[in-house]
Amino acid sequence: MINVQIDIPEALLPFVNPKDEREQLLRNAMIIFPFIQDETISYGRAAEILNLKKIDLIQLYDSLGFPYFNQTKEELEEDLQNIKSVMRQLL
After folding, report:
1. Exposure string for 22-32, b = 16+ CB within 10 A, e = fewer
2. Total structural domains in the chain?
């Protein structure tokens, strides 16, 4: 780990000084999350950076309300039907 100095509003200070390893992990996971969302890095790379297994990172974000799959059930069903259609054409 390295230390980085950043300018933040003073009122934010209590929220960025983690009390334990869990809070530090949560803070770092939240820092990196926008880069996952905009596809700058993958979940796998983020997990490596945070020294986690990919599945553990996915579960961490899920516990915070950030699902790995952001499609609706209908969108997933449509994708499944499209895959089945392509498979039938290939066979």
Report:
1. eeebeebbeeb
2. 1
Read off the tokens for 69: 């799959």
Its domain, for residue 34, covers 10-90
What value, to the nearest 5°, has the Cα angle with vertex 79 and ends 75 and 82?
140
Please give the Cα distance from 64 to 58 (Å, whole number).
10
Q: Please list the alpha-helical segments (H only) found in the chain.
A: 13-16, 21-37, 43-49, 54-63, 73-90
Model confidence at 9, pLDDT cuts 50, 70, 90, reads: very high
Summarize pLDDT for 10-41 with one digit per residue, the tens: 998 888 888 899 999 999 999 999 999 999 99
Q: What is the pLDDT of residues 69-84, one digit of tens each?
A: 877 888 888 989 999 9
Task: Look at residue 3 and tell me if it is in a domain.
Answer: no
